[in-house]
Structure formats: structure tokens, C-alpha cells
Amino acid sequence: MPRKMNVLGAIGAATRARLGRAARTTALVWAAGTQALRPSLWSAPMRNVLARQILFTGLEATGFVALIALIVGTLVVVQAQYWLTRLGQTALIGPILTAVVLRELGPLLTNFVVIARSGTAISTELANMKVHGEVRALDAMGIDPFLYLVVPRVVGVAASTFCLTIIFLATTFIGGFACLWVIRLGDLDMGLFFGNIIGAVTVADVFSLLAKSILPGMLTGAICCDEAFAVGAAVTEVPIAATRGVMRSVAALFATSLLISLMAYL
């Protein structure tokens, strides 16, 4: 009986810890979002941090995201066109690509790239600042670390993820059509191809795209900042914080994508 109680206690403690982290992350996202909507808080240093975050997360990752999108477009679009042509259902190319690429693959793969690049960088940078006392120094100078360090990163990651998702989708569809044109597979009417895709997009798809690109981006920024500020005084805790930030961000990405998809389809 005592052993069973110990097991139940361990499960309960782990559950409470996860719920506490989820509540803390939700509070960070809410606070960052509400503070970001106050123009008076955006001082020149905060705008500078935001610009540098967008530069690293968005602009510098454009080439890699476009490369992945081109590969996905070549694989998915060509496969869909090939099999639909054989089945005589080429009119379904728009709804299928919308469901597969726009609703699911585009936001998911883009968020993976952002988590791998920027999530790790944010956790490592802020954790090192915490270990070396830079966060305490900012607080001592009267600078709110949350406003200066967290808000620009959460907003910058979310904005960059949304822009990268749009680039991913455009590159996927354009690259897929270009590949079809090169191998001369199926109907090569550009207007008909893109018309089928645009015609298959609904209002629910637009809201789903916005939610799946912006919300996971905000969660990634908040989770990585949270893990970074949780380190103590040991330098060895920095890589642990980076790993936890990435793992929690990936879990949050799948959870939010699942919930948004369920809401969109139901």
C-alpha cells in the first residue's frame, strides 16, 4: 500500500508540475500580448530588440524555409496531380492541396524550423544572461526584464512565423506547379491550377492558418523565455534549459495544432 501511494504521489506531483508550467506559459503569452498592444511601452530599445528578433527568426530563415517548401511542393503537388490525373479527378487538386498543405503541413513545418533555430537561441541567450547576472543588472537599473527581454521576443517570433508560413505556402504552390510544367504532368493551365486552390480556401481555413502560425509562435517565445529564466547559477543548466524549451515548444505546437484542427473540422 505505501508503494502504491508513492506511485500515486509521484504521478500527482508530475501532473501538478506540468499544469503549473502550462498555466505559467499561458500567463506569459497573455501578458506579452496585452503589453504589446500598448504603444507607449515600445521604447527605442524594445523596438531594437524586436527588429533583431525578426531579423534572426524571420529574414535569416527565409532561404531555408523556401528550400523546404520547394521540396514539399515537388513531392506533394506532383504526387497529388499524378494520382488525380490517373483517377480522372484533377478538379480535386485544389481542395486536397488546401487540406494538406495550407491547413496542416505549411504551419507545422514552418513552426518546426522556428523552434529549431530561434527556440534554441532564445533559451540559450536568456539563460546565459540569467547565469551571468545580466537580468539582475537590468532589474537594478530600473528596466523591467519582462518588457525588455520577453515581450519583443514573443511578438517577434509570432510575427516571423506568420510571415514564414505565407512564404512557405507560396513557394510550395509555385514550386509544385513549376515542377509539373517541367515534367509536363497533367493540365498545365496556371490560371486553372491556382484558381482551384484559391477557390477551395474558406474563411475557416484563413482563421485556422492565422491561429496555427501566430499562436504556436507566441507559445514558442514564451516557453523558451520561461525555461531560460528558470535556470539557477550553474552554467551547466543552460543546455538543459534549451533542450526543455525545444521539447515543450514542440509539444505545445502539436497540442495547439490538434485543438485548432478539431475546432475547424467540427
Features:
single chain, mainly alpha
Write a compact overview of the structure shown.
This protein has 9 helices and no strands.
Protein model, in words:
With 266 residues, the chain is mostly helical. The protein has one domain (43-265). The protein contains 9 helices and no strands. Helix 3 (62-87) packs across helix 6 (145-183) and helix 6 (145-183) packs across helix 8 (203-229). The protein is elongated, with a radius of gyration of 22 Å. The model has no long low-confidence stretch (mean pLDDT 86).
Topology record:
Layout: H1 2-36, H2 44-59, H3 62-87, H4 93-131, H5 134-140, H6 145-183, H7 190-200, H8 203-229, H9 237-265
Helix pairs in contact: 1-6, 1-8, 2-6, 3-4, 3-6, 4-6, 4-7, 4-8, 4-9, 6-8, 8-9
Q: Total number of β-strand segments?
A: 0
- The 3D shape can be described as elongated
CA-based gyration radius: 22 Å
Order of SSEs, N→C?
HHHHHHHHH
Number of domains: 1
Mean pLDDT: 86
Alpha-beta content class: mainly alpha
The residue fraction in helices comes out at over 70%
Task: Compute the separation of the termini in Å.
Answer: 44 Å
Number of continuous helical runs: 9
Largest sheet: none
Uncertain stretches: none
The percentage of residues in β strands lies in: under 5%
